[in-house]
Structures are given as structure tokens and as C-alpha cells.
Amino acid sequence: MRAALPIALAAALFATALARDAADLWIDRTELPPLAVATGTEVLARDGTLLRAFTVADGRWRLEPGPVDPLFTGMLVAYEDKRFLTHAGVDPRALLRAAAQAAWNGRIISGGSTLTMQVARLLEESGTGRIAGKLRQVRVAMALERRLTKAEILGLYLRLAPYGGNLEGLRAASLSWLGKEPRRLTAAEAALLVALPQSPETRRPDRFPDAARAARARVLARMAEAGFLDRDRATAALTEPVPTTRKPFPARAPHLAERLRRADPQARTIPTTIDARLQTALEALAARAARHAFPRASLALLVADHRTGEILASVGSPDWTDDRRAGFIDMTRATRSPGSTLKPFVYALAFDEGLAHPETLIEDRPTAFGTYAPQNFDRSFRGTTPVREALQLSLNIPVVSLTEALGPARLLATLRRAGVEPALPGGQPGLAVALGGVGVTLEDLVQSYAALARLGAPVRISALPGAAQPLDRRLFGPEAAWLTADILAGLAPPAGAPAHRLAYKTGTSYGHRDAWAIGFDGRHVAGIWIGRADGASVPGAFGGELAAPLLFETFARLKPVPDPLPPPPPATLIVANARLPQPLQRFRPRGAVFAVNLDAPEIAFPPDGAEVESPRALTLKVRGGTPPFTWLANGAPVILADRTRESALPAPEVGYLTLSVIDAKGRSATSTVTLRP
């Protein structure tokens, strides 16, 4: 008998060893489901703030957990699996307890599943009630414990736990139900997020808030009983309201984020140079402006640091979900007519070539360049004016004269050196390019003005870290760039705008389709576009009235005081007109096919093409010529041998009126106007 006992003990140990080896082999041979869990792409601001997240392929919100409040992980383990850190995937004590409860009550009271078993079920998307399913979860859980660390297993739970609807994982749930990242949670918030995965559909706060509140209360009560929370804190947590609606996921810079995701669809995280605070402020500014703008008008806004080329804010539309305004179109990248915003580059080139200087006198008179006869926006002419004033008033005749002297291809080549690819209607550049007869984007214009702010040294702007870089080619000399910027900085701010000293230019395209304002200080450059995404006209939309105030508001949100513009380069010529070299004192067109004889008479008022409300007496003014003057109205003499340069035509009739003036030498000028009732 005594001899048989050692044999029996040895046999039992051998059998146990065989069973253990068989179990080990059974576990090691477990075919695990894929452990790589797909998560949605995240586009991040420069400080790591989430700008926009995207769903995974099947439309579920599932994100990387990121930093998680230790309060939540501690509460999760204490409530769901308090021996998680020590068991091998299965907790025998919990299984025995669950079996005893089921036998005593005649129904399942608790499942005895560990967090690892829950991860096994979530990985395989298997059910919880069948014996075969439980055995499979046990096997997979034990295999997971052998191949992964506890932190990796917990990470899978934090990605896969269901939270109702298409929400999976802690971070998606925290953003949607609480509107915050899970890095800092209250006890009530942590308890709710622990409770929801147990029955995510029947405890959804937006549909069953009472059930969600009761489940949260059970978690808090058990945490208080276990000593994880003191009772006062648990009691106070019960008073916090349960969220009853899902909050939208962050969608700042949505157009930019979508573009970056499409460019790199495999990236899980896309960092950017966007300033989250500024982006949020400017999106609010754009939305407010859109509410007060014209119906169906859109708006785009772009801000960059021209020293580095980093884009700090990009607003493609006031509301990317607003179909009425075609908000889904990113208008920072849409090709539009720039209106007058290219004029500063013509002047900078002219300064660089020695064709003109800010104090050079230039003519603003009716002039035809072949068959092209541009007019000023207000259909009036200022005569002889300094170049500085011509740019500040955005006069058309002077800039076309300079473009004709430079050649329009020179302007386009300058834009290309700035990294812009202008869209040219017809393929061949004409003089109209100086007035907006070319297609560019808001991003193009901001990049071009960045070069002007950098004294002629272009930079490629980008929202991707490290992608912005200086371009190895200069547009024009630093002296020419500084003189141009100095002129633009002399423009008065819009009425009611902060008194920031910005170098800025406005523009309005033909037919009021686009209203622009682009400007810079010593560090930043910004651009505003307003118009309709479909290219339709917006009557009454002017860059100076609509876009310019928003440009100044943009800089006000960017910083309290603008950075000063740079001082003039050493070789900059800053003198009055009388001290300029003789060729620079007055600019004369080089090759205009027809130009008005400067000694001939010219009708100063009313200018050709003007519309005037019909007065009791129409004032007539003549500039140049030799008195006396004879005036004709629709071919009939009305004033004879008048030696003054200002006369009056009594009681003119409503409608079209052709006025002619003839001086003592027989030279004449004609103006056709419309008299409105």
C-alpha cells in the first residue's frame, strides 16, 4: 500500500504535466485574429490638437486612444477585472463565482469575463452567450496573454470597446459623448465610460439617459465600496448631468484636412503647422461675416508666417456643410480672377527696371493700347499723378502703361518664379493680365505677397511641417520690393478697422465676381476672398468694402500689435520728384499705339462713360488746350467762345449725351455720358 502511493503520486504528476503540456500546445497553436486594429486618420494642429478625424472604412468612429486619464483605467480594471494584472487571460475565481451565482439564481448574474476575454471577443466580433463562444474566448485570451503585454491588451480594449451606434473605443466615445479628450476626466465621466460598453445600445445616453445614469451610479457605488473612490466624491459625481446628445467630432480646417488625407491615405496621423487657436477664431470670423454677407456668397481666408512659409490658418468656406453656399468647395484653391491685386508686382518690376519711382509722375488719361482701351473703375481720370498715388488709388491706365513697357509676359514670369502657376485664358498674355485677366488662387496670392513681404525673396508656403521652403530665385530687388510695400502701407485702414499699419491691397474682379484683400506686416501675410463659388456675380461686392475690414480683423485676432515692416535697404532712393534723375521724373508710355496729345484739350468732367444724375445744369470742365472753347451737345453748339475752363449746360435731357469741346487751335475732345432721371 505504501509502495503504491509514490507510484500514484508520480503518475498524477506525470498526468498533470502531460495535461499542462497539452494545454500549452493547445494555447500555442491558437490561430489569433488580426491584431492590427484600423483606426481613423487624424489631422493635428502644430500643438497636437485634433483638427479633424476620419472614420475607418466601414464608417465607424475608431481612433487611437492617445493619453488616457489614469482615473479611467484604474476604475475600468477595478470594476471589470480587478486581477487583470496578475491572471493569464482567465480568472478562475471570477469564473467559479459566476458559475455559483448562475446555479443559485437559475440565470446568469455575471459572466466572469476578463478584460482579455472581452478583447478576444471584440477582435473576433463573436457573441457572448454560447458555450462554444466562451471556450473560444478563453483560448484566444490565454494566447493573447502569451503574445502581448498587459499594456498592449488594454490598448486593444481602448480601441475596440463599443459605446453605442458607430462609436468604438474610449477616445471616440469621449469626444462624442463628452466633447473632450479622455486625458482628463471627472469621476462621473470616467464611470459613464466604464459602464457603457457592458450594454452599449441599451445604455446610449442620447436614447436611454435613465439607463445610462443608473449604470453610471452602479459603477460609482462599487468604486466607493472597494475604496477606489471616497464616498463623498462618488456622491458628488452622481449630481453631474448625463450627456443626452452626441457632439460633433472636431472638424477644424476641414478642407485642408481632407486634401492632406487624400494625398496620403495610408497615414494614421498627419501633423500640420496650423495654429488651432487662430484657426478656431478665424472660422468663427468667417461664419459671422457670411451671415452678414450677400446670399449664397462664400468666403475663404488664409494666413501664413512669411518668414518660414508655414500656413497658420486655412478657411476654405464659412461652413463646409452648407450646400447653399457650395461650402464643400475649398475656395483657397479655386482659380479666380485676382482683380487689382497683381498691380503691386507691376510697380515693383517697374521700380526694379528703373522705369519709375514712387514719386515719378505718370498720366492717368484716356489711352488706347492698340484696340485695348482700359478705363478706371470709377470711369474718371486724374490726369498727371505720382506713381505712389496711382497705386494707392488703384488706377488702371498707369499700371497698364507700365505693363506695356515691361511686357505682360514679364509679369507672368514673375508670378511663376514666386511658385504660382497662373491660368491664362487664350494662352497668350495680354495687357489685361495687370487688371486681373488671369486665373490664380487665394493660396497663390498669399504666396506671392509673402515674396513681396520678404523683399522679393519668394517662399513656398505649406501646412505640412518641413515642406515650406525658400525658393532659389528672386522676383525683384529688395529696394523695389520695399518701395512697393511702403506705398501699400500708406493706405488708410478701412472705416472702423483697427489702426494696424499693414501693407495691403484690395481688388474687385470684372462683374463683381470676386472681392479680395491681401496684406502683410513684418511677420505674417494674410488673404481674404469673397464671392460665389459658382462664379456668379455679386452686385455691390467691392474688395475695399467687404474684404479689407475682414483682413484687418484677421490680423487683430492674430496678435494685438502688428510686427513692424523692415527698414529700407541701404540703396533705396527716397527723394522728392524734383531730385529724381530726369528720366524718372515723368513716365511716358513706350509704344502705346494711340495716346491723347497732352497739349490737346481734354474733357475733365463729365468723363467719358460716366453716369450722372440729371441736374438742373450740368457742369462742364476742360483741361489742357488753348481758350476760347466751344462746346457742342449731341453735335449742336451750346456754348461759344468761352475763355473759362468751367461752364454749365442748362437743363440737359435724360438719356445719352455726347459732349465735344473745340479749342482755339481746332483741337477737340469728346465724352459720351448717360444722364439718369
Automatic annotation (TrEMBL):
The gene is pbpC. Residues 599-670 form the Penicillin-binding C-terminal domain. Residues 1-19 form the signal peptide. The lineage of its organism: Bacteria, Pseudomonadati, Pseudomonadota, Alphaproteobacteria, Rhodobacterales. Residues 68-223 form the Glycosyl transferase family domain. Residues 301-510 form the Penicillin-binding protein transpeptidase domain. Keywords: Carboxypeptidase, Glycosyltransferase, Hydrolase, Multifunctional enzyme, Protease, Signal, Transferase. This is peptidoglycan glycosyltransferase. Pathway: Cell wall biogenesis; peptidoglycan biosynthesis.
